[in-house]
Design a protein that fits this description.
The protein is α/β, with parallel strands linked by helices. It has a single domain, classed as NADP-dependent oxidoreductase domain (TIM Barrel). Helices cover 39% and strands 15% of the residues. Strands 3-4-5-6-7-8-9-10 form an eight-stranded parallel sheet. A two-stranded antiparallel sheet has the order 1-2. It is globular. The structure holds NADP nicotinamide-adenine-dinucleotide phosphate. NADP nicotinamide-adenine-dinucleotide phosphate binds next to helix 9.
Length: 283
């Protein structure tokens, strides 16, 4: 039996995005190249990178060398915090595209809503930046545009004033940090949520509830976390540099968590939050 998960979610603009992605944070150069090659070989078709990760060149090369058609791989990159303006967004987008070696990007995100240096004027700068995103999308250079680390109150500020709504919001989300308010708001607004740090960096795997349910379902804690995210309609982006764990994280297509156990995970005590509050981060 093939236990790998393979399904898409459809974004608000009709674009299909693979419902599990592969995270590449903290991998650079050769390690990112090897890991992305391994992930593609294992079956992932959705790769998450960012200008900030300094691995776009390696990611692009791994996609090109994989032999998989470019159109079969969904690649995301992100605009870093130093570049929130109409002009800089366009310049940085072209820089990312060229580093990746692509002629279009599948998804481009604003990495953080309110960088420390512009916190007092974040909304104005966001609208300015978003205008560039809308134009790049309109010109066909990006298939979908979105945001990252926007919590409910950020989205409430911007949605009424943009021409094109973000199609995706990528936020920290995992058992112990379920982000119920933002997820509900995104669902009502037609925004697809993606989970970063979906495994809570393996920090909660030995809590009693996680141990109990993993053993009950005959899965690993990582598989339990990722399946809980998928069943909430959220796209997880697990990162692993290890071939065995890369496969393990994709083999979540064969079991189902009951509604009652879903609720138990969703309501477990808060734990494992990185502490990266988008209104307080120092960068
Ligand atoms: N938008 C944002 O601001 C933002 C912020 C952070 C991250 N992200 C994205 O989200 C992705 C994932 O987040 P993350 O990398 O911080 O955390 P994560 O995926 O929750 O955890 C990664 C850690 O878990 C370990 N791991 C992976 N699979 C495992 C398994 N099956 N069993 C045990 N341990 C396992 C990995 O070690 P090994 O590599 O040794 O397996 C690594 O140390 C990032 O790579 C990035 O693409 C976005």
């Amino acid at each position: 039996m093939d236990r790998r998960f393979a399904a898409n979610v459809r974004l608000a603009n009709g674009i299909d995005m693979p419902a599990i992605g592969y995270g590449t944070y903290r991998m650079d150069g050769d390690s990112a190249y090897d890991a992305v090659r391994m992930a593609l070989k294992t079956g992932y078709r959705h790769i998450d990178t960012a200008a900030y990760y300094r691995n776009e060149e390696a990611v692009g090369r791994a996609v090109a060398d994989s032999g998989i058609p470019r159109s079969d791989v969904f690649v995301t990159s992100k605009l870093w915090n130093d570049f929130h303006s109409y002009r800089e967004a366009k310049v940085q987008f072209e820089r990312s595209l060229s580093a990746l070696g692509f002629d279009y990007l599948d998804l481009y995100l604003i990495h953080w809503p309110a960088p420390a240096a512009i916190r007092g004027v974040w909304k104005e700068r966001m609208f300015d930046t978003w205008k560039a995103f809308e134009e790049l999308y309109g010109a066909g250079k990006i298939r979908a545009i979105g945001v990252s680390n926007f919590w409910k109150h950020h989205l409430e500020e911007i949605l009424p004033r943009v021409q094109i709504r973000p199609m995706v919001d990528q936020i920290e989300l995992h058992p112990g940090f379920p982000q119920v308010a933002t997820v509900d708001y995104c669902r009502q607004s037609g925004i697809q949520v993606e989970a970063w740090q979906p495994l809570a960096r393996a920090a909660l795997f030995s809590t009693p509830l996680v141990e109990e349910l993993s053993s009950q379902y005959g899965v690993t804690p990582a598989q339990l976390f990722l399946r809980w995210e998928l069943q909430r309609g959220i796209v997880p982006l697990p990162k692993s540099a290890d071939p065995v764990r890369i496969r393990e994280n994709l083999e979540i297509g064969w079991f189902e968590i009951s509604a009652q156990d879903m609720e138990r995970i969703t309501t477990m005590p808060e734990a494992g939050w990185s502490g990266l509050d988008p209104d307080r981060v120092a960068f």
